[in-house]
Amino acid sequence: MANLRWSAIERSVEMTAFYYLVVVAVFFGAWCWWRLRPGRRAPLQATQVGGRQIGREMLTSVVSILIFGSILPLLFALGFGKYTRFYWQIGSRGWLYFVLSIVLMMVIQDTYFYWSHRLMHSRLLFRWFHRTHHRSVTPNPWTTYSVAPLEAVVDSGASILILMLLPVTGLALIIFSWINTVYAVYGHLGYELLPRRMGRWINTSTAHNVHHRKGRYNYGWYFLFWDRMMGTLDPGHDERISS
Q1: What's the whole-number mean pLDDT along residues 65-93?
Q2: DSSP one-letter code for 223
Q3: How far apart are CA 143 and CA 22, in angstroms?
Q4: Res. 11 pLDDT band, cuts 50 70 90
Q5: In the chain, how many H helices and how many E strands?
Q6: Which of 40, 203, 213, 241 could form a disulfide with 220 if both were Cys (CB 3.0 to 4.6 A apart)?
Q7: For residues 192 and 205, is the Cβ–Cβ distance under 8 A?
Q8: In angstroms, what CA-CA distances link 22 with 16, 85, 210?
Q9: Residue 91 gets which letter from DSSP?
């Protein structure tokens, strides 16, 4: 039994590392191209990202990826499965719910991240949980998973909450995980890919770049609903996206 548990954990770590690094590598390739060909796409910050920063981020990401990839398999090995609402056949709930479940996972993820993110910015917790990530004032794709081990544990809580609250199937979880990863890397890209008008309710790369530059405001993951409701939206955001 112990061997099976560790085998599941190792397999999850391999798969997690594979798709995380592939997605980051694709975005990082584009990022390098834009840096080498200035004028084609303007960076969101004038400050250049140095090799030392990228090296530090890559090393830090190894630890966080191991944590992200190990927590759920370990919990399932310890019996967490009985507390989830996982189901096997898409047809048992229908394709409409299948699509809706992915949207609901995004909403839960965004809500969880907003409040846990704000909490980690408190003076009491920032040093231990979030300072590692904010050492990167000018983000790039490798910044995405450059977080402290404690923050990686906290961030993993969103998946646990989703599995406890929602009936979900394996394919929906896979699609959600890809959306989640791609959007996380896009948010730290340092370049904007979306039209400005989408920035009213979407937490774009531009909005998250401001969060890294100022160290506050724009705490959401996918959306800006919570930031608008709670008064944590950057004061210059609406003017920036309308200019």
Answers
A1: 88
A2: B
A3: 15
A4: low
A5: 10, 2
A6: 203
A7: yes
A8: 10, 30, 26
A9: G
